[in-house]
Amino acid sequence: MKSVTSRDNPFYKELKSLAASSQARRKAGRTLLDGVHLCQSWLELRGAPNHCVVSEGALHNPEVADIVARCESLHAHVTALPDALFGALSQVEHGVNLLFLVETPAPVQPAAMSVSAVLLDGVQDPGNVGSILRSAAAAGITQVFCSAGTAFCWSPKVLRAAMGAHFVLEIFEHVDLGALIDASRISVLAMSGYAEQKLWQVDLRGPVAWLLGHEGQGVADDLMGRATHQVVIPHAGRVESLNVAAAGAICFFEQLRQRQA
Amino acid sequence: MKSVTSRDNPFYKELKSLAASSQARRKAGRTLLDGVHLCQSWLELRGAPNHCVVSEGALHNPEVADIVARCESLHAHVTALPDALFGALSQVEHGVNLLFLVETPAPVQPAAMSVSAVLLDGVQDPGNVGSILRSAAAAGITQVFCSAGTAFCWSPKVLRAAMGAHFVLEIFEHVDLGALIDASRISVLAMSGYAEQKLWQVDLRGPVAWLLGHEGQGVADDLMGRATHQVVIPHAGRVESLNVAAAGAICFFEQLRQRQA
């Protein structure tokens, strides 16, 4: 285990930049995982991080000590920081002072979709994107394609909301969703409050792509036109809209229900 | 329309206190609705507010002007504030400077449940609570009962996430959920990742109460024991948990699907 005690240390500066800026994460192709749950998930699903960073105070926490020991047994770098320096790296209030620095997974994007997938067209809210990733992974979906206007998936808020779903998914960002749909043969279901075909009338037992749009404006017109189905989640109340992450969860698990029936 | 220009005005001070503190909202039995969508929904579903508060700059916005005119035609008080004073009242960045001051609806709690309902046991995150209210209302559920440990439903974040669902629901807070369950004859379905009965194997065509628990710990043991069913949402992925709001949405709409089938 190394120790860094100066704010001018280049590695500390790199961490600070990655902690504060999605742009820095994008540019470096690296991201930070914050807290015990995400770090444990990474270890279980992806193995060693590039670097494990821990505050001196957190070393007394048995869960943290266990994670540090596992990192060392996998020959990952471990660096301890004074608690005061660590504070600037974490957005989690009252969190455990533990971070993994990892290479952002960069899977090669397939030219066409052949398995069930989620397409996010301009979903803005990081909490919504994270919740969608979490629900998709829990329903057994493995691929997520995001348009340029969708929230950056490897930001702290999206990572926190997805609770490790990132590590079992293939996530593709800055995707030309129109071209992807055109190149694919599977059904593309655009969700819309104005559609007529009801979700539970669609046969979902084969692979489908779920196209979910912006919180306010929904799916963009040009993508809506390219979808093979426009589908509505039926409502029964006087409130006629759903949160996009709630809508996604309903869709993914209706598919799972039909497949398990 | 009145005009308030001093920070020392008692009405302005009341607004500031309600804007900043859930405790003040609870104590006063009043709440603030922030922005065009919530105010429009209130007008449509509940009628006149006690008071419509608007910044001078926002009066030029046609949607705001329309809402102000409707308030005046309903003989509601309307007060204009300089933009600088309004700023301290709103948590919405780049929002439209419009607020309704309303009496928090305080429906009389029934001794027992007889229609489908949602029971929230210590759900902490305001965004989750708001999303659950929104999904429940959209699925046609009309009653929500919250334990003392659940996030305050009339806070800005919950109101924003629920998008007006509050105004079609009966919301009961600080409820002794155990006593309520004991007094009720409808099925109570406690959602749990560890249960064996699968959601889609339960007959949901009659009235049921959905019991949803804390984001980390789930439903408390004593309530779990009182439920008539312990139910799991089946999973297919290597990620084995769902966000509580996503879980709620899946449950409420599985019930709607069965009812419409």
TrEMBL record, chains A, B:
InterPro entries: Alpha/beta_knot_MTases, Ribosomal_eL30-like_sf, rRNA_Methyltransferase, SpoU_MeTrfase, tRNA_m1G_MTases_N
CDD domains to which the protein is assigned, alphabetical: SpoU-like_rRNA-MTase
Species lineage: Bacteria, Pseudomonadati, Pseudomonadota, Betaproteobacteria, Burkholderiales
GO molecular function (one): RNA methyltransferase activity
Top-level lineage group: Bacteria
Domain tRNA/rRNA methyltransferase SpoU type intervals: 118-252
Name the UniProt record assigns to this protein: RNA methyltransferase
GO biological process, one term: RNA processing
Alphabetically ordered keywords of this record: Methyltransferase, Transferase
